[in-house]
Predict the 3D structure of the following.
Amino acid sequence: MFESAELGHRVDKATFRDAVPALRAALLDAQFELREKSQFPVIILISGVDGAGKGETINVLYEWMDPRYLTTLAFSAPSDEEAERPYMWRYWRALPPKGRIGVFAGSWYSDPIRDRIAGHLDQGDLDRRMDQINRFEAMLANEGALILKFWFHLSKEGQRTRLKTMEKDPRTAWRVTKESWTRLKTYDQLQDAAGHVLRMTNTPWAPWIVVEGTDDRYRSLTVGRVVLDALQKHLAGTRDPGYPVAPPLGLKHDVCDVLTALDLSHTLDRKTYETELAQWQGRLSELLRSTAFAQRSLIIAFEGSDAAGKGGAIRRIAAAMDARQYQIIPVAAPTEEERAQPYLWRFWRHLPRTGRAAIFDRSWYGRVLVERVEGFCSEADWLRAYAEINDFEHELQESGAILIKFWLQISDEEQLRRFREREKIDFKRFKITAEDWRNREQRPAYHAAVCDMIDRTSTGQAPWTIVEAEDKNYARVKVLRTVCERLENALRPRKNKDKD
């Protein structure tokens, strides 16, 4: 994949001098239009071999464009805070909002390539990581992002020559470190690993652009022209959507109606409720104080019918926890800051570190529920969201997080009774709004959306727990018991399968 980047591309001084003014002006115009429209973000990945001009290229972009709307993000070894969260957490937090350009010096590709060279990843593990990255970039592209991935290449001899030249020049000597020479020794391994990675992730929605790094003028003009061309096409709306959405849903009779099949008659008398509540709250407190949990995190997502008792269940969980150990995240309509990012961004930013818990009152499932029913996103958007959410949740699980998802269900009659009760009680009036009443008119649409959601996203790694919430006592105990049982199962030491 690197052959064409070893052909000795060069641009003479006169050609460079004549081309730059018009290119700079066009880049500034495109950047201004990007900022004015604020319809999508631009993500530029700068990767490649040492000495190929990665840092110089970033400096050129800052010189040729308005630096107020450029952000450079450099990534090295994860900090303690980053290491205690899922691998992609720090990259999600760094994504630029709509209307801005984010330049990534080092990216989600750096660690997998480095680990493959060091022998920490075998070929199968590397391929699985690349599959995850492809789906991540596809999601960003489907959210509208323009993704440009540059790999700056030098031949082995070219890299050695360039490092020596830079080392002799006082202006660039600081760029050459012991690590630069050490990495030259693994040049062949880098080419093998990087070549494989680039082939696997060179997609229509996020292509790789391999640029020869020998000649500074050629490299700068090439990058500037690629960025300009891609920006102009994206602004004109002529980009190729590239990535297919999820397949259409089946006919209604093909979908299991898990809500209608529920037995909502379950109840608990007051005395039994108080006994079991104390029992499970005590058990939960013990589990969260255990040494085993110190290396894990807990994420609980609550969804359910309006007035189904999500808040009451959350309060009973929180009562068993140290206030320093958890955060409750109420999810409402996205803010202006959140609308400028992919829809999962606002949930990534709240993921807990190890030894902590996050409780989401409503969650990322809004994309396939309220946004689907109310028409806040297109059919293609919510159809592809099922796969994106599954990927998100599986990534949480693989990082060591314990994810528990609840859907609380009540009958239409019980919901109406609770609505009317809320209107009559002063301290509950804030819980009932005109929006709640309006949503009751959409009950069939929400019913179908919930059934589809559970059918498509209740996976072996992240199953849904459906709670019969007609009786609040029963629902609260079931929620607490489920949390404890899932925690116990996750924290239980695994038996050595090789032991007789």
Notes: Residues 240-255, 496-500 have pLDDT under 50 and may be disordered.
